[in-house]
Inverse folding.
């Protein structure tokens, strides 16, 4: 049985239990039927005797005789009625054996000789049996009545024989019904389990839309729901891991591109410095003026040092934004702290710096990283805003925006502006356009903090927007 599948196993168990029940029930019926039959007949005699006595209590002798005769014919019973030592006999059958009802007076009732002669004609076969009901009472005129009521029954052995003949048919029909019931029951019970088995096979193959069909709210239905929940969790974990792998791959690509760009940016000043020093060494042409070109060489070294420091700061800031402790940062507080250091630069360029704070905003991130975002955005805004124009800082409607009045960038420039070391053609000079790492750092931090952002042209210039997440 252990190797059988669920349906045949359930069918065999169910059929076995129902077979045992069928045999037990039929066995009990065969054993208990005769005694039950006799008890029913005794009860019937008792009821008929009480019924006849009630009818006779209100009659005189002539009426009583007539009622007894009609009752015997109508109910197929034998009645012997005694009134004033007179006996009236009315026979509906010819009895041989007499059984007394235990609830009545137990005295032998003598069957008349003519009855014995008639019953003897039955031969040696088992004779019919009778049950006796006896009543003694007085009518309304205090006339003493007594009657003996005999009810004919089939012999007990004959009843057993009839029951025994019916048993094979009854058992066969019961087994057929049991087979059908066991098949239906097994199908209903095993169908949801088969569905779960089929669904789990698909889940084993990692078919994404596989789900167990939930058909009920019982334990099997709860099992199907738990499997579905477990599979959904598994897929969410797989997708999360795939996303993390993609993110890691993108980070690795960004690092490689960053290193390539950094190498390129360092290669140019170092090559220039090498050429300059080589010419100074051999005193070629104008490079004989060593004091002047030593100053230029020093500036190149300082620029390269600054470039290396910016690269190191960028790497450090990425580590800080990704790994260090985060907190709910008050954006207004950080913005006010950062903007103070740029007010002097804006004033020197006669730039109008306007601050509009209408809402409160909190972001869960590293505070230093947010300060670096604002610092880079404000530095770009001051550098690329012409003299006498304006910069508007605003916190309202769930957004942080920095808008500066300038010539809007083209789509080609916007497609490149977030790349490391990229500077537009109009700001190739590092003294004016910086290192080209500002927006690269801003994008990197915002991306890893899952903050939505945009950098788009407006009617007056360019506008950088950071979406504040909803308050938890």
């Amino acid at each position: 049985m252990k190797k059988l599948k669920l349906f045949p196993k359930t069918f065999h168990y169910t059929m076995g239990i129902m077979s045992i029940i069928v045999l037990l029930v039929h066995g009990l019926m065969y054993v208990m039927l005769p005694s039950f039959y006799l008890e029913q007949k005794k009860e019937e005699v008792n009821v008929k005797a009480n019924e006849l006595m009630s009818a006779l209590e209100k009659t005189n002798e002539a009426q009583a005789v007539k009622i007894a005769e009609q009752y015997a014919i109508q109910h197929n019973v034998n009645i012997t009625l005694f009134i004033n030592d007179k006996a009236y006999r009315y026979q509906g059958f010819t009895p041989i054996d007499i059984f007394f009802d235990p609830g009545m007076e137990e005295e032998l009732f003598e069957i008349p000789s003519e009855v014995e002669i008639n019953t003897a004609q039955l031969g040696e076969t088992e004779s019919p049996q009778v049950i006796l009901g006896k009543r003694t009472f007085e009518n309304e005129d205090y006339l003493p009545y007594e009657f003996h009521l005999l009810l004919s029954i089939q012999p007990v052995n004959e009843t057993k024989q009839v029951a025994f003949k019916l048993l094979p048919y009854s058992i066969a029909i019961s087994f057929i019904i049991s087979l059908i019931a066991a098949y239906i029951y097994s199908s209903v019970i095993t169908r949801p389990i088969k569905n779960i088995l089929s669904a789990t096979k698909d889940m084993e193959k990692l078919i994404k839309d596989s789900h167990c069909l939930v058909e009920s709210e019982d334990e099997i239905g709860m099992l199907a729901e738990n499997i579905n929940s477990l599979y959904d969790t598994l897929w969410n974990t797989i997708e999360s891991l795939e996303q993390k792998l993609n993110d890691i791959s993108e980070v690795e690509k960004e690092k490689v591109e960053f290193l390539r760009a950094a190498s390129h940016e360092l290669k140019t000043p170092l090559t220039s410095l090498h050429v300059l020093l080589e010419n100074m060494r051999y005193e070629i042409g104008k490079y004989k003026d060593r004091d002047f070109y030593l100053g230029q060489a020093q500036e190149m070294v300082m620029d390269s040092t600054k470039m290396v420091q910016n690269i190191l700061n960028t790497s450090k800031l990425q580590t800080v934004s990704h790994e260090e402790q985060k907190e709910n940062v008050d954006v207004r507080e950080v913005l006010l702290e950062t903007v103070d250091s740029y007010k002097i630069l804006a004033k020197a360029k006669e730039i109008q710096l306007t601050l509009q704070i209408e809402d409160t905003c909190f972001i869960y991130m590293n505070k230093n990283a947010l300060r670096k975002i604002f610092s880079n955005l404000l530095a770009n805004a001051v550098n690329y805003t012409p003299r006498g124009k304006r910069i508007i800082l605003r916190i309202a409607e769930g957004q942080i925006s920095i808008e500066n009045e300038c010539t809007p960038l083209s789509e080609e420039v916007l497609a490149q502006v977030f790349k490391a070391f990229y500077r537009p053609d109009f700001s190739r000079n590092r003294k004016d356009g910086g290192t080209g790492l500002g927006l690269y750092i801003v994008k990197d931090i915002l991306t890893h903090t899952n903050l939505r952002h945009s950098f788009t042209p407006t009617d007056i210039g360019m506008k950088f927007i950071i979406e504040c997440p909803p308050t938890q």
In short: The CA atoms of residues 122 and 177 lie 42 Å apart. The longest strand covers residues 129-138. Confidence is low (pLDDT under 50) at residues 102-127.
